[in-house]
Write a structure and sequence with these properties.
317 residues; alpha/beta; TIM Barrel; eight-stranded parallel beta barrel; two-stranded antiparallel ribbon; 10 helices
């Protein structure tokens, strides 16, 4: 496993990280989830991701239980705050009240004294950015959070936060968690440049387009019964990728992967890691064998000819 710095910080994170969205504490048996995390750790993955909203805290409980087997200093753990945790009016968003109370609850579920990274799970238009930044600054000063991050913010929002942090002498966000894969490249034009200007690294989610970039759906008249697309809790996130145009792109990409003698999933992850601003590719795994395969993408080098072939496949299909 190779490691990269998280944005402009000195923190080293594994190129492949393991998340718990739509899986742990939800669709995957707890024992399988714990075994998968153990496999990831043994493979050298030191970066694990969860969120308070994932099955209303259940994912944090499972992830915390699995990581208690390891020395706290040996791994990096991220969680998030923003989405509603109840119907109460102050139990959502990025107000100081919700942030502080959410971190307290997350640490209790995780049974930890601190998390390495706390993300703003989305942008909150109803809370002044300075209020959010000051809450994060205080949590970092208290040692309950080590680094602040954002998820799915626009380039303009990233720049606004950086300007306020500079003006008010507050700590900057250092990591962004956007959606990014071969079939969704929207962050390349504005978000990555804004992040680079402000010392922010990307930890991208959905790098395999919810499994579409494994090739498992190619030529399938019906989706596999054990796939995410067959799961009512997950298939709404996949529908946008399952159409003839996308299938044509995936088929061309699979030809490239086959020529290189590697699975399409490995090619897709290695392609993401071609960019220096990518700190880690965040994968989901519902069984140990999946994380074993995904981890093999770390350190894979794609030469210029291969990258040109990929670009052509994505543009022509």
């Amino acid at each position: 496993m190779k490691y990269r710095r998280l944005g402009s910080t000195g923190l080293l994170v594994s190129e492949i990280s393991l998340g718990s969205w739509l899986t742990y504490g939800n669709a995957v048996d707890d024992k399988v989830a714990i075994d998968t995390i153990a496999t990831a750790y043994d493979l050298g993955i030191n970066f694990f991701d969860t969120a308070n909203v994932y099955n209303r805290g259940a994912a944090e409980i499972v992830v915390g239980e699995a990581l208690r087997n390891y020395a706290r200093e040996s791994y990096v753990l991220a969680t998030k705050v923003y989405f509603p945790m109840s119907d109460r009016p102050n139990d959502s968003g990025l107000s100081r009240k919700h942030i502080m109370e959410s971190v307290r609850a997350s640490l209790k579920r995780l049974k930890l004294d601190y998390v390495d990274i706390l993300y703003c799970h989305r942008f909150d238009p109803n809370t002044p950015l300075e209020e959010t930044l000051r809450a994060f600054d205080d949590l970092i000063a208290q040692g309950k959070v080590l680094y602040g991050g954002i998820s799915e913010w626009t380039a303009v929002q990233i720049e606004q936060a950086a300007r306020i942090a500079d003006a008010k002498l507050l700590r900057h966000f250092v990591v962004n968690q956007p959606r990014y894969n071969m079939l969704n490249r929207s962050i390349e034009e504005e978000v990555i440049p804004a992040s680079e200007r402000n010392g922010i690294g990307q930890v991208v989610f959905s790098p395999l387009a919810q499994g579409v970039l494994t090739g498992k759906y190619l030529g399938q008249k019906e989706v596999p019964k054990d796939s995410r697309a067959a799961n009512d809790k997950m298939n709404s996130f996949i529908k946008g990728y399952l159409n003839p145009g996308m299938e044509a792109k995936v088929a061309k990409l699979k030809e490239i992967a086959d020529r290189l003698g590697m699975p399409l999933s490995r090619l897709a992850l290695a392609w993401i890691l071609r960019l220096d601003n990518i700190s880690s590719a965040l994968v989901g795994a519902s069984r140990p064998s999946q994380i074993e395969e995904n981890a093999k993408a770390s350190g894979v080098y794609l030469d210029e000819d291969t990258l040109m072939d990929i670009e052509e496949a994505l543009n022509e299909a």
